[in-house]
């Protein structure tokens, strides 16, 4: 069922079944009620992203003129982020095979023609833990390459319910989202009441930000 796309980069097509996708969509809707989507901006230039974002968990990823960073509060409401959705937490437990609970769950909202340019995820202080990605809504063309921006790239389609685990030798590869595809099955792929327009996509990434404890079963280290 799972496919190794590259060393450390594992695709689990249909990891979440239809019931789990609906449950996660409801949990994300509740999370976004508490922490409304915001439009991130590029450091220095202030150019807005086409993807809207929110977060759940002790820390959230934000970007504005001052730069990229993780912080404990919503950039507009000043409130702490809500708890990570239970269905996403269960996916981390099943797939991450790692150290400590995730500290951040970044919620990306794609409303066509939103896209995400080729980038590395390197704002974390912990690269030994994997990133776990979950997709809902419309399919997307995901592109990934190597450790250098100019390395050759490959593309795969990510569909609703797919999980991707990004760890090991792939943790710092360049990747992005080139485009969305029309959802073939709105009932199965668009259980996103209220928080995305028809044809939209939602991606959750679960991350460690700070080093956790080395030994399993021990309480996690403080994050601040
Ligand atoms: C490869 N999100 O939030 S998920 C991101 O579909 C991000 O919204 C994309 O890239 C999305 O940073 C892709 C798959 C993914 C996530 C994190 C990675 C691939 C990755 C980190 C390192 C390498
Ligand atoms: Fe990324």
List keywords for this structure.
7-stranded antiparallel sheet; 224 residues; binds fe (iii) ion; 4-stranded antiparallel sheet; alpha+beta
From the N-terminal CA to the C-terminal CA, the straight-line distance is 39 Å
Which percent range describes the beta-strand content? Answer: 25-35%
Number of helices: 3
- Average pLDDT confidence is 92
Shape: globular
Ligands bound to this protein structure: N-(carboxycarbonyl)-S-(naphthalen-2-ylmethyl)-L-cysteine, fe (iii) ion
The succession of helices and strands, N to C, reads: EEHEEEHEEEEEEEHE
Helix content: 10-25%
* Number of distinct beta strands: 13
Unreliable stretches covering 5 or more consecutive residues: 214-219
Strand order of the largest sheet: 1-2-11-8-13-6-3
What gyration radius follows from the Cα positions, in whole Å?
16 Å
Most strands sheet: 7 strands, antiparallel
Structural class: alpha+beta
Short description, anyone?
The protein is α+β, with helices and mostly antiparallel strands.
Question: What features would you describe in this structure?
Answer:
This protein has helices spanning about 20-35, 85-95, 185-190; strands spanning about 5, 10, 50-55, 60-65, 65-70, 105-110, 115-120, 130-135, 140-145, 155-160, 165, 175-180, 200-205. With about 220 residues, the chain is α+β, with helices and mostly antiparallel strands. A seven-stranded antiparallel β-sheet has the order 1-2-11-8-13-6-3. A four-stranded antiparallel β-sheet has the order 7-12-9-10, with no helix packed on it. The protein is globular. The termini are far apart. Mean pLDDT is about 90; it is low at about 215-220. Bound molecules: N-(carboxycarbonyl)-S-(naphthalen-2-ylmethyl)-L-cysteine and fe (iii) ion (FE). N-(carboxycarbonyl)-S-(naphthalen-2-ylmethyl)-L-cysteine binds near residues 170 and 173.
């Amino acid at each position: 069922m799972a496919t190794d796309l590259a060393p450390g980069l594992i695709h689990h097509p249909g990891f979440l079944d239809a019931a789990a996708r609906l449950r996660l969509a409801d949990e994300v809707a509740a999370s976004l009620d508490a922490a409304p989507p915001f439009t991130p901006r590029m450091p220095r230039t202030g150019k807005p992203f086409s993807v809207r974002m929110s977060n759940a968990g002790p820390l959230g990823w934000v970007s504005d003129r001052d730069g990229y960073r993780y912080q404990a509060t919503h950039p507009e409401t000043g409130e702490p982020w809500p708890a990570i959705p239970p269905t996403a937490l269960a996916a981390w437990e099943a797939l991450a095979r790692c150290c400590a609970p995730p500290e951040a769950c970044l919620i990306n909202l794609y409303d066509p023609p939103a896209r995400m340019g080729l980038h590395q995820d390197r704002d974390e202080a912990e690269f030994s833990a994997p990133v776990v990605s979950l997709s809902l809504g419309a399919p997307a063309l995901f592109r990934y390459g190597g450790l250098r921006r100019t390395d050759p790239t490959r593309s795969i389609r990510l569909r609703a319910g797919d999980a991707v685990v990004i760890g090991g030798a792939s943790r710092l590869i360049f990747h992005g989202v080139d485009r969305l595809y029309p959802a073939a099955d709105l009932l199965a792929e668009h259980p996103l009441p209220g928080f995305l327009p028809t044809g939209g996509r939602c991606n959750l990434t679960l991350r460690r930000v700070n080093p956790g404890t080395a030994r399993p079963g021990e309480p996690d280290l403080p994050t601040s």
